[in-house]
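FORM 12-B: Structure-to-Sequence Request
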């Protein structure tokens, strides 16, 4: 396209300058980046263009943090960065399944391996899985690239990161069903959080979408508590044809609250933590317990609550990566 629309005596260069911004911290990420990546052609004109863009960043970014590469390396680095982060999440989530089966504690395991300087502690928080617009999209792009380069085994490897992510969500819901006596028919479940992570109203690829789908398939009614997500956005996500959920049923069986935790939990059989909003840690869970159906359950999919305190109140508590002793004492 560029060549066919080229005019005589007009020259230009195309650079690759991927962003590494995270929702909720985008401004800080831009002002204080870990690195700036600029890719372009390796000829003199390409190098000149890279220098021009680099000079713009040098107004606030130390030159040592500006990495220059060829175009392919820049583009692949962007895909690989998100793929590696998602891989860490799926890796620790796979270990959380072993913890639940064996009696190990995933938070203790994460802490122990995080002290290894070769591994580090970031992105080792077990959960119900990753979401957002970037991780799954970039892994799918990486898979597509591998398949087109005839690298089937590599494509299969990265596909497994997505398989584990889906497995974690389904496994979590299966535990909810088992704990609620193998049926959710006509039971009310309250989801704490619908955004894919805290401090954003973004719901794209949120783990809560599939959690809702699985719960609705089991016959549950759902109330969602999220301080930023709009009702129309939630309905839009749950109306995705791939979920195969009748829109009339969704509107009838799913409600959304922004702040009224008591109304959201009134008559509920279980609370399911899907997003790690800080406000969820501040609620009076003893007061909430009084207005819930008994036995009252809490399923912590983000490991943000005090499980011992909840148990002392009377909740039946389950959490990702933990095995609880529910025998009467």
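FORM 12-B RESPONSE
SEQUENCE OUT:
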């Amino acid at each position: 396209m560029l060549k066919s629309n080229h005019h005589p005596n007009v020259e230009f260069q195309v650079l690759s300058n991927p962003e590494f911004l995270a929702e909720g911290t985008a401004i800080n990420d831009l002002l204080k980046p870990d690195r700036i990546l600029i890719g372009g052609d390796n000829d003199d004109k390409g190098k000149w263009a890279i220098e021009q863009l680099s000079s713009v960043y040098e107004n606030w970014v130390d030159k040592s943090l500006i990495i220059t590469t060829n175009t392919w390396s820049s583009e692949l680095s962007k895909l690989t960065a998100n793929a590696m982060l998602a891989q860490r999440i799926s890796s620790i989530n796979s270990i959380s399944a072993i913890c639940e089966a064996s009696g190990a504690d995933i938070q203790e395991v994460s802490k122990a391996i995080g002290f290894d300087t070769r591994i580090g502690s970031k992105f080792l928080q077990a959960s119900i899985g990753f979401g957002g617009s970037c991780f799954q999209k970039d892994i799918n792009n990486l898979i597509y690239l591998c398949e087109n380069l005839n690298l089937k085994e590599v494509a299969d490897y990265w596909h497994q990161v997505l398989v584990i992510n889906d497995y974690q969500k389904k496994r979590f819901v299966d535990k909810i069903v088992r704990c609620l006596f193998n049926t959710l028919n006509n039971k009310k479940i309250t989801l704490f959080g619908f955004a894919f992570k805290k401090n954003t109203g973004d719901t794209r690829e949120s783990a809560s979408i599939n959690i809702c789908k699985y719960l609705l398939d089991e016959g549950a009614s759902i109330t969602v508590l999220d301080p930023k997500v709009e009702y129309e956005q939630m309905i839009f996500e749950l109306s995705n044809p791939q979920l195969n959920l009748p829109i009339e049923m969704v509107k009838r069986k799913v409600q959304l609250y922004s702040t009224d935790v008591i109304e959201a939990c009134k008559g509920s059989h279980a609370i399911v933590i899907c997003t790690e909003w800080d406000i969820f840690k501040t609620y009076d869970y003893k007061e909430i317990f009084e207005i819930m159906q008994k036995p009252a359950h809490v399923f912590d999919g983000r490991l943000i609550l005090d499980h011992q305190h909840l148990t002392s109140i009377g909740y039946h508590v389950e959490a990702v990566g933990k095995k609880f002793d529910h025998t009467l004492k």
